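Re: Re: ligand-bound prediction request (bumping)

Still looking for help on this. To restate: I need the protein modeled with alpha-D-glucopyranose bound, output as structure tokens. Inputs repeated here so nobody has to scroll up.
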Amino acid sequence: MAKAKTENKTEKKTEKKTKTKAAPKTKKPKEPKEVIEAKVTEAETAAVTEEHAVPETVAPQPRRSIAFIGSECYPFVKTGGLGDVMYALPKALAELNCDVKVILPRYHCIPAQYQEKMVYRGSFDMDLCEDGKSFYVGIMEYVWDGVVYDFIDNDEFFTGGNPYTNLVDDIPKYCYFCKAALAALNYMDWIPDVIHCHDWQASLVPVFLRTQFADTAIKDSKTVLTIHNLRFQGVYNIPTIRYWTNLPDYVFNKDVFKTGYEDANMLKAGLTYTDIITTVSNTYADEIETPDYGENLDAHLRYHGGKLRGIVNGIDVVQWDPKADTRLAAPYDITDVLDRKKENKKALQEELGLEVDEGKFVIGLISRLTDQKGLDLVNEILPSLVDGNTQIVVLGTGDIRYEESFRGFESGFKGSVCSCIMYDEGRAHRIYAGADALLVPSLFEPCGLTQLIAMRYGTVPVVRETGGLKDTVEPYNQFTHEGNGFTFDRYEAGLLYDAVNRAKTLYFTDRWHWDEMVQRDMAKDVSWKTSAEQYRALYLELKP
Ligand code: ADP
Ligand code: GLC
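Reply:
Sorry for the wait, this slipped through. Here it is.
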């Protein structure tokens, strides 16, 4: 049943693809504007080209060049899944013979070990504001694993300890960043086939490209804008965004920026101007065209539906490899997971001050603590889950009310519940390895990576059937014993409770089939391979 539904969705997306080609809806006003072009020396260009060289023997042809533009990227700066994707997808594309450059802000919070390795590639001044105010743009480069990272350097915008602070600061920061990224590509004379932008922070790139950059070297590049999370759109009043972009009046209308009576929406404008919109799962691509999930942009997305696709995320299976994971007490693979997991569980219980007992059912939750992640459901059922056989480990930061409620549970259920209110990569790895199940009961979930990482580590996901969770976790069938995890559909605490209890029942009463599922999860392909090929095909479609 569920399978048939997915197939229908695939067909629907294919239909949309055909529609795009026949009737492109995007208007592309051509306004000759300031030219932001400066050239690097031939020596610099040659150096860049050489660094990009990939052995031709294994390379699918033709080679395409892609500039990734986004606001975070592991290991430099990461607050969630966007950071993982900005690291892993370029790497996977480089392996498919794509020439990839990743353009990021050079935040002060990037660890010194990376800052020290960056090489100065050049700098220039760039006009930005309505009143002609211009800003310094520095380019610092770091090459790693076949991918070139270019960091946009500017002390005025990127000084915060966290990439995101508040909209008052973030709006100017990302207006500047989008324009600086395009100007930097022109400056380096590196004109990509496709510019792939991510989320609202990079969404002005297609708008600048088709207006202020319409007569510059980069004008023929195509654009893809990926929505990782529609909840965040970069909305602020029109005068402020007009000031910080100096974009022409005609873009501040209802078809491009304008939203409500007086606000401008940066993501909406990017969606209008980009050649292709993607999001990170097929189900989410369908969901965001509905009022329930559309975050007030559903009508706009339906209008541009002909250029909207879903491509599901993967994970980097080298970064997330339980066999080679130096952070684990007992690294393992599919052949010894059943024994090693017990050792990792005991090590985790010791680390977190939980009762050390390999017989307990350990449930992990690794998440930003926000409404998106279904934490009100978890709060409602947590006291009934703690029954003497079950332990719960939470790792996350976010909204104060969730941080406090989880701290409260820890002190109320000492030895059975541990709430780590912190961001800690190492601990995340150890929870993925030591837990038996991982909860992801999200209200909405564009894709979700934690359920993919969990499966890779032989940890059974318990998820709500929404977005990418629905597309990546096949529900366990108690009759055929197939499936990868436990799922529930409506957003109700009772249904989450029921799903966790189904998991516990299998674990405690039918360990044989539980263990089979653990091994099946580890064998599942959660890598980027298939999805990176789909992105590559998309780039080729844009630039045949
Ligand atoms: P989102 O991007 O919505 O936060 P994803 O599931 O796509 O959710 O990605 C979350 C990523 O962030 C995963 O790599 C997860 O392991 C990581 N993560 C989330 N919270 C923490 C934390 N407190 N400490 C360490 N890693 C975390
Ligand atoms: C967003 C989404 C998450 C997705 C991630 C990477 O943060 O909330 O579902 O996995 O982006 O695409």
